[in-house]
């Protein structure tokens, strides 16, 4: 277990002004957990002109504060109880006698004086970017729905059946960290932009968010992956539990949990930095994953491969799991992402649904010339799947699927439904799982693609990966 550094701040906090926010920000930067003590009405006396409960609520609402409580006894006793590693006080107290000094020195703690630095951005406003989820910019696919006789009630019925599904997701776990920066200007030494970090927020990404989407939309979900023995592993385990996912994370001491950092300023990404290990997992871990999933296979309805090509899904493991799933008549979906890395969606032979981008499809088929329908047919032949949903970014989706006749195949298109996207990361993950769950509920390929397209539109309407709710998808059809 990695030891967490606790930081403590205390005060009256009648009105949280910018000085307090700077102090809290500085204090949180010194450790992992910030605890704030709010002086009670009784101890503060006339200095407290706002009731203690209202002052406490104000402190608790701050994004930097992990825990806050009312102080009703001597500060030395409080410090002796919680034993913070660091206590932070404003710079104005540095030349005064501080009772905290004696208390903290008894166990080797540290007292720091700082009022924090001046920043010209509010962290609460910055965090709002990650909390707001816009659905008003989603266009309704009415023409497509009319062509395939898809009613609003039919969509409601399909999504309501998600709660009856048992889903297994296997693939690469990724932690996405968004670091919001303030621009300081251009370097005078070389043509570089200079920034200072203001705030950071982490999300579960990769195959982890695929599992979280499924759980959020009502399914019973088991997630299988590999992680390192690090803070990101602990973060992922905690968040997946909160999302209602049964996570089976094998710890591999030889590799870190994959983390992707995005440095952003004014709503735009400046730079991406990834820490990862791309080598295939060992035979030992492959065997462990296969055993765990094999035991579960007879009871599941849907198996999803979410492949980011970071080594969690070596070919022998994929082949064995597909064979096992087919023996149990489990519906199978797969996605293999190739952005900064190179993958091959065609290696998931025998699955029912694949959702590649046009770029990924051309890499897998080594076809850079033919049209989209020919490309989809070539990929379908290689994989021997029933449905191909080709993701084309701003141009929407191309659906290529089997119709009534055994050898009859048809195509259609759904335009991109969100005309004001905030963050395209994660759109494919939400499309994959929502379309796959619909198909596992016996929806048609046309219905599944429609639900997947709306789910993707919902996802790109927010910054960062957050599990999608059924009501958000249904709003896209209203």
Throw out a few tags for this protein.
single chain, 478 residues, alpha/beta, Rossmann fold, UDP-N-acetylmuramoyl-L-alanine:D-glutamate ligase, 9-stranded mixed β-sheet, 5-stranded parallel β-sheet, 17 helices, elongated
Describe the model.
- The chain has 478 residues and is of the alpha/beta class.
- It has 2 domains: 6-118, Rossmann fold (3-Layer(aba) Sandwich); 132-174 and 204-255 and 278-475, UDP-N-acetylmuramoyl-L-alanine:D-glutamate ligase.
- Helices cover 35% and strands 26% of the residues.
- The strands form 3 sheets. Strands 10-9-6-13-14-15-16-17-18 form a 9-stranded mixed beta sheet, sandwiched between helices.
- The longest helix has 15 residues, at 445-459.
Poorly predicted runs are 118-122
Largest sheet: 9 strands, mixed
Q: Major sheet: order of its strands?
A: 10-9-6-13-14-15-16-17-18
Strand content: 25-35%
State the name of the first-level CATH class of the largest domain: Alpha Beta
Mean pLDDT: 88
The dominant shape is: elongated
> Please, how many domains?
2
Number of helices: 17
Q: Which structural class do the helices and strands define? A: alpha/beta
What's this, in brief?
The chain is of the alpha/beta class and about 475 residues long.
């Amino acid at each position: 277990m990695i030891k967490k550094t606790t930081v403590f701040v205390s005060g009256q906090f009648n009105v949280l002004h910018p000085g307090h926010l700077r102090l809290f920000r500085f204090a949180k930067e010194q450790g992992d957990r910030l605890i704030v003590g709010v002086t009670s009405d009784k101890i503060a006396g006339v200095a407290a002109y706002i009731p203690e409960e209202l002052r406490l609520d104000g402190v608790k609402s701050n994004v930097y504060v992990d825990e806050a409580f009312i102080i009703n006894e001597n500060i030395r006793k409080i410090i002796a109880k919680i034993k913070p590693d660091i206590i932070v006080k404003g710079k104005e107290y540095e030349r005064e006698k501080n009772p905290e000094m004696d208390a903290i020195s008894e166990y080797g703690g540290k007292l720091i004086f700082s009022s924090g630095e001046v920043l010209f951005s509010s962290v609460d406003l910055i965090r709002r970017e990650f909390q707001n989820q816009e659905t008003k910019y989603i266009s309704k696919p009415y023409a497509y729905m009319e062509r395939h006789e898809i009613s609003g009630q039919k969509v409601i019925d399909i999504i309501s059946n998600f709660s009856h599904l048992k889903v297994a997701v296997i693939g690469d776990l990724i932690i996405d960290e968004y670091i919001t920066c303030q621009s300081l200007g251009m370097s005078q030494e070389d043509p570089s932009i200079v920034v200072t970090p203001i705030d950071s927020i982490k999300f579960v990404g990769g195959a982890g968010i695929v599992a979280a989407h499924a759980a959020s939309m009502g399914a019973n979900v088991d997630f299988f992956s590999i992680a390192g023995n690090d803070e990101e592993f602990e973060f992922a385990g905690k968040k997946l539990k909160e999302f209602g996912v049964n996570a089976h994370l094998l710890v591999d001491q030889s590799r870190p949990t994959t983390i992707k950092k995005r440095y952003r300023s004014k709503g735009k990404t400046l730079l991406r930095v990834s820490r990862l290990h791309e080598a295939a997992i060992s035979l030992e871990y492959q065997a462990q994953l296969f055993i765990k999933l094999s035991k579960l296979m007879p009871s599941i309805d849907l198996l999803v491969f979410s492949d980011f090509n970071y080594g969690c899904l070596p070919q022998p493991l994929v082949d064995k799991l597909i064979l096992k799933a087919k023996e149990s008549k489990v519906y199978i979906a797969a996605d293999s992402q190739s952005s900064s890395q190179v993958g091959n969606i065609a290696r998931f032979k025998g699955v029912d649904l694949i959702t590649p981008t046009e770029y990924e499809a051309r890499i897998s088929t080594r076809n850079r010339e033919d049209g989209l329908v020919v490309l989809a047919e070539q990929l379908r032949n290689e994989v021997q799947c029933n449905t191909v949903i080709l993701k084309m970014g701003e141009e929407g989706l191309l659906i290529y699927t089997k119709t009534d006749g055994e050898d009859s195949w048809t195509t259609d298109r759904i335009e991109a439904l969100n005309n004001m996207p905030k963050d395209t990361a994660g759109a494919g993950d939400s499309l994959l799982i929502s379309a796959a769950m619909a198909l596992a509920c016996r929806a048609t390929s046309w219905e599944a693609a429609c639900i997947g397209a709306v789910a993707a539109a919902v996802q790109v309407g927010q910054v960062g990966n957050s599990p999608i709710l059924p009501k958000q998808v249904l709003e896209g059809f209203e």
